[in-house]
Specification:
Elements lengths: L1 E2 L2 H12 L1 H8 L3 E8 L11 E2 L3 E3 L7 E2 L2 E2 L1 E7 H8 L9 E6 L20 E6 L5 E3 L11 E10 L21 H8 L11 E4 L13 E2 L2 E2 L1 E7 L13 E6 L1 H6 L6 E5 L2
Antiparallel strand pairs: 1-11, 2-11, 2-12, 3-7, 3-11, 4-10, 5-6, 7-8, 8-9, 12-15, 13-14, 15-16, 16-17
């Protein structure tokens, strides 16, 4: 769930989960943004936008898979987002271009390609001082350039992003911490479904997590793209696209290890 006020978030968590579990759950909150499309470029946060041409440094190759160019879906201006993210943004990557394989050709022509593999997506950083608008080569899809306003929020994790060791719960009453959150938070643990979001926590709602954990912790959520009729993209039945990156790669500013995960009903 999104909160503008950390005190209100803590109060709600302790009221519903009890003092100890509530504080443990509230401590899992991450800073993020809800990305609200705007027709007025003056309302945009920096150069953040959905669709449009990529913003790449001269000489940067357009990413492709199996001879098919990927499609540009979003650009995040991390310099504009950095003041809110603070230490949650350990490096300054400048502009982040988000690509995914979505060619404007019949599916039969690329069905043999591994759409779930890491090469089906790319996140390419660019120096804002050197980046230039770069049009997508055919047959990549080009979506309307849509400025976005990044609304600063604190996000609690979806119940499926909570592990049994994260919060205290009665093992006689609940099969796991996820069950506790699902029951006591009454659906208020995450409410960003259907929204475009950056950083923070994703909303999955599919009984499985997107931000898988390793020895370094939960993977970092970079971008959540919901189905959007105005832009003309969709991810199956009520589908959502998630871009994540392993913690170690994020700390090093190595966005070559970013991954995309599409979920739908």
């Amino acid at each position: 769930m999104e909160f503008n006020d950390p005190a209100s978030m803590l109060h709600m968590c302790t009221e519903r989960l009890g003092e100890k579990a509530g504080r443990q759950f509230a401590a899992m909150a991450r800073r993020g943004f809800r990305l609200d499309p705007s027709a007025d470029a003056a309302q945009a946060t920096g150069r953040c936008r959905l669709g449009g041409p990529a913003l790449l440094e001269p000489g940067t190759s357009w990413p492709e898979l199996g001879g098919f160019p990927l499609s540009l879906h979003a650009v995040l201006d991390t310099d504009a987002l950095a003041p809110w993210l603070g230490d949650d943004l350990p490096t300054r990557p400048g502009l982040l271009n988000f690509f995914y394989l979505d060619p404007d050709v019949p599916y039969e022509e690329y069905r043999e390609l591994d759409m779930s593999g890491p090469e089906a997506c790319r996140v390419i950083p660019a120096d804002p001082a050197r980046a230039v608008e770069t049009a997508a080569p055919e047959p990549a899809r080009s979506y309307p350039a849509t400025p976005v306003h990044a609304l600063q929020v604190s996000m609690l994790p979806d119940c499926w992003d909570v592990e049994d060791t994260d919060v205290e719960f009665d093992t006689d009453e609940y099969w796991g911490a996820s069950a506790l959150i699902l029951d006591k938070m009454d659906g208020l643990d995450a409410n960003t479904a259907g929204s475009h979001c950056a950083f923070g926590w994703p909303d999955t709602s599919y009984a499985s997590r997107v931000t898988n954990r390793d020895a370094d912790g939960s993977a970092i959520h970079l971008l959540q793209l919901a189905e959007d009729a105005e832009l003309g993209w969709g991810w199956g039945d009520a589908g959502t696209m998630y871009f994540t990156i392993p913690v170690k790669a994020f700390m090093a500013g190595d966005f070559s290890e970013a991954e995309a995960d599409m979920r739908c009903c």
